[in-house]
Amino acid sequence: MGRYIIAAGLAASEVGGLMMIFGVIGLAAGRKSWAILVDVLLLAGLAAWLWWRRSLVAAGLTLAFVAYEYGYLAYVSGGSNSWLTTYLVLFVVALAAHARKPKPTGAVPTGSRP
Q: Which residues, including other chains, have CB under 8 Å from residue 13's CB and lie 6 or more apart?
């Protein structure tokens, strides 16, 4: 179960990173306030903690923070933002990639056997 929570946190950190990149672009364009930098720094700290330690607490906090940001975006845009679906699809794909079982060490890649 812990592996799936960490996988969800890793996927959320990737999607949240994309959300923050667009937030900084919005700041540069004058559409967002400087408060977006607080979100960027908070997510960067949580993601660094998660990727460095693979902590369940960091995964849960990262997932909760990105879910809050996603919910806030959905509320502000009234559900008419096309990025809402894109973020959700990217999260599911990243979750599937991070949740799969790791290959055993010393495994021979497929197709390389004589």
A: 43, 46, 47, 50, 51, 62, 66
Domain locations along the chain: 2-99
Cβ(60)–Cβ(8) under 8 Å? Answer: no
With CA atoms as reference, report the closest residue to 50 among 89, 14, 92. Answer: 14
9 near 50, Cβ under 8 Å?
yes
- Decide: 83 and 22 in contact? Cβ < 8 Å: yes
- The pair of structure tokens assigned to 28 is 């540069």
Q: Residue 26, SS3?
A: helix
The greatest distance separating any two alpha carbons of the chain, rounded to the nearest whole angstrom, comes to 60
Alpha helices in the chain (DSSP H): 2-28, 36-53, 56-77, 83-99
The tens digit of pLDDT for each residue in 54-90 reads 999 999 999 999 999 999 999 999 888 889 999 999 9
First to last CA, the chain: 38
Residue 85 corresponds to which tokens in the numbers above? Answer: 């679906």
